[in-house]
Amino acid sequence: MQLFIRTIGAKYRKSFLGYFWMIFPAILVSGGVSMASGAGVINPGEVGLPYLLFAFLGTLIWQVFAEAFEVPFQAFQGARTYLTRVNFPRGAVVLAQTYESLITMAVRLGLSLLLVAVFHGITVTGIALMVIGFVGALLLGIGLGLLLTPFMLLFADLHNTVKLILSYGMFLTPAVYIPKEPGLFATVVNGNPIAPLMQVVRDGAASSVLNVPLALGVSLVTAMVLIVVGMALLRLAAPIVIERMLLGGR
Predict the structure, then answer these.
(1) Smallest Cα–Cα separation from 173: which of 33, 24, 20?
(2) Which of 19, 110, 114, 182 is most buried, judged by most C-beta within 10 A?
(3) Where are the transmembrane segments (predicted)?
């Protein structure tokens, strides 16, 4: 664990703002949509929190999810120089990359808790709910990433498509607004698996009352199933992926 702490520390010390880069994208997006909301361009509906905090938490959860989604792919890409030469459990490279994601998530969670405590106040129950939401987003992202990584490693176009979806897919979630009118868009925004995780984080920050227990349970169970199935699929596909790396000279 100390090795991973040193690795991530070295990674962020290379930049002038250091750990601030972990939350800067969320701050930037939150500030932009807050100005749009103030100008009447975005109508977020009843959110139960100061809108800037509402948007910040939703955006940060999406950021945790999107980066976790890339963990298995980046793990295999980063290890390609020795995957083709050394025989070892292939899941180990994903686990090693996951440690770094856990540290990054913990920093973001700690900063979020601090901001909520300072600007809105928070209880012990609220802290627990926010932890569940952040951890759930990480697990869901890794689970989906594991499921698709063998195909993304074999087909570059699929990975490019996924990156495009991760770049703009946040706007199909309740990250910065809650649709008020029923319809297809509201169904997509409120029905995706990341929505309950955003909601539980906001519930913890706003009132410490869990409003979506069933949906949260479904999201967490889905994440665990995806991790188990995705890891099994990755183990099965590893020989094919490694052979493709050898044939491609990668």
Answers:
(1) 33
(2) 19
(3) 20-42, 48-66, 102-122, 128-149, 214-237
Amino acid at 91: G
Hey, is 122 helix, strand or coil? coil
Domain range list for the chain: 2-247
Q: Round to whole Å and give the CA distance between 233 and 148.
A: 9
User: What is the rounded (10 degree) CA torsion for 200, 203, 209, 214?
Assistant: -30
- By residue count, the chain amounts to 250
Using the Cα atoms of residue 18, residue 21, residue 106 and residue 74 in order, give the sign of their dihedral.
negative
How far is the C-alpha of 57 from the C-alpha of 26, rounded, in Å?
8
CA angle 204, 212, 187 (to 5 degrees): 120
Compute CA 77 distance to the chain's CA centroid, rounded to the nearest angstrom.
19
Percent pLDDT > 90 in the chain is 26
Tell if the pTM clears 0.70, that is, is over it: yes
Which residue in the block uniquely carries the two structure tokens 């897919």? 169
**pLDDT, tens only, 53-105:** 888 898 899 999 999 999 888 887 776 666 666 565 666 777 777 888 888 88
Residues 30 and 62 sit within 8 Å (Cβ to Cβ): no
Sign of the Cα torsion 188, 193, 197, 200 reads positive
